[in-house]
Amino acid sequence: MSENRVEEIIRAAVTQALERQLASLRETVVQEVLREVGPALARNGESSTRGSSAALQKAISAIQAGTTQKEILRALLDNTVLYSGRAALFVVKNGAATGWQGIAFGNNDAIKDFPLDIGSGLASRVMRSRASEKGTPSDVDQHFTSKFGVPSEGDVVLLPLLLKDKLSALVYADSGTEGGTLDVAALDVLVRATSAWLEVISQRKQAQKDGLPEPEMHAAPSVNDPFAAHAPIHGKAHAETVPEVAMSAAAAWGGPTSIPSGEDGEIHRKAQRFARLLIDEIKLYNHAKVADGRKHRDLYDRLREDIEKSRATYQKRYGNSAAGAADYFSQELIRSLAEDDVSLLGSNFRR
C-alpha cells in the first residue's frame, strides 16, 4: 500500500472519529457553561424570552455552527445584540487593546483598530480580575465614548475572552444610544461558551495534525490564537521585553531542557502536544473545580480521577517511547493546570 493511500485512510479515520464526537462536545459545552452561570440567570429573571436557557442555547448553537475561529467570533458578536444595544470586540496584545469588529454602532468600521485604553477604569479592572465588570460610561476610555456616543441607559460592561488561560480579547457592550437591553449574565454565557468552543476547535485541529505525518514547519501563527494575524495600525511598534527566567517550575520538575533533534525530536514534540491536549480537556470540562482548586491549593484532590485517567492515557501512548523519561504530562500539569505553581496541586500530588 502506498504512503499516500495510508495517509488518506488515516485522514478519513481521524475526521470521522472527531465528527462523531462533535455533537456530544457541543452539548457538554452548553451544559457546562449554563451550569456555571445558571444562578446569575435566575437572579435576572429567567422567565423572559431573551433570558431563557432555551434562547441562550439557540445563540450558543449559532456560535458552535462556526467551523473557523473567525466564524465563531463573528457569531458571538452577532448574538450579543440579542442581549445588548451594541457590542465590540477588542484584541489584547502586547499590553494594548485594539478594535477587531463591532456591531450595531453607527459606524462599525470605525471600531476596527480603535485603541482602547486598558490602563485605567473599567478595562483595567477586567485585566486584573479576568472577570466581567459592569460600570458607567465615565469608567470607559473617554476617547471611545466621545467617538461612539454615550449609551442611553448609562451602564456598560466589559467581558474577558480567555483562551487557554490567556486574556486574548475584551468584549464591550452597552444598551446603545437609542435605548435597549443590557443582560450581563446572558452576555457572560455567550463569551464563556465562545472561549470553550474555540478551545474545542483548536484541540480538534491539533488532533487531526497528530493523526497525520507532520508537514514542514513554517513561521505561522499558532492555531490557538484567532487574533494572531491581527496587526493593529495603532499598536505598539515593539513588544515589551519580557525578562527571561532561568527555568519554569514545570521544567524544573523534570525532563529535558531542550528537545533533541531528528526522529526522537518529532516524538518529543508529539508527546508535548498530546500532554497539552489532555490537560486542556481536563480544564475544559472542569471549570469550577479548577477555579476552586487553584483558590484552595488542592487541584489534585479535586481532579484526581481525571488527572490519573489522562496520565494513564498519556503513558500508554508515550510512556515507553523516546519521550517517556521527559514526563511531559506532569510538566504540562504544573505549567497549565497549576499555572506554573506546583503548590496549587496540593500536598497529595506526586509525580
Task: Compose a concise summary of this entry.
By secondary structure, this protein is α+β, with helices and mostly antiparallel strands. It has helices at residues 3-43, 53-64, 69-80, 121-129, 142-148, 184-210, 249-253, 262-285, 287-296, 299-318, 328-337; strands spanning 86-93, 96-103, 115-116, 133-135, 156-163, 166-174. Helix 8 (262-285) packs antiparallel against helix 10, helix 8 (262-285) crosses helix 11 (328-337) and helix 9 packs across helix 10.
Descriptive report:
- The chain is α+β, with helices and mostly antiparallel strands.
- The chain folds into 2 domains: 21-203, 2-Layer Sandwich (Beta-Lactamase); 246-345, no CATH class.
- It has 11 helices and 6 strands.
- It has helices at residues 3-43, 53-64, 69-80, 121-129, 142-148, 184-210, 249-253, 262-285, 287-296, 299-318, 328-337; strands spanning 86-93, 96-103, 115-116, 133-135, 156-163, 166-174.
- It has a 6-stranded antiparallel beta sheet, sandwiched between helices.
- α2 runs antiparallel to α3 (69-80), α2 packs parallel to α6 (184-210) and α3 (69-80) runs antiparallel to α6 (184-210).
- The longest helix has 41 residues, at 3-43.
- The radius of gyration is 22 Å and the shape is globular.
- The relative contact order is 0.11.
- Residues 45-51, 212-223 and 235-254 have low confidence and may be disordered.
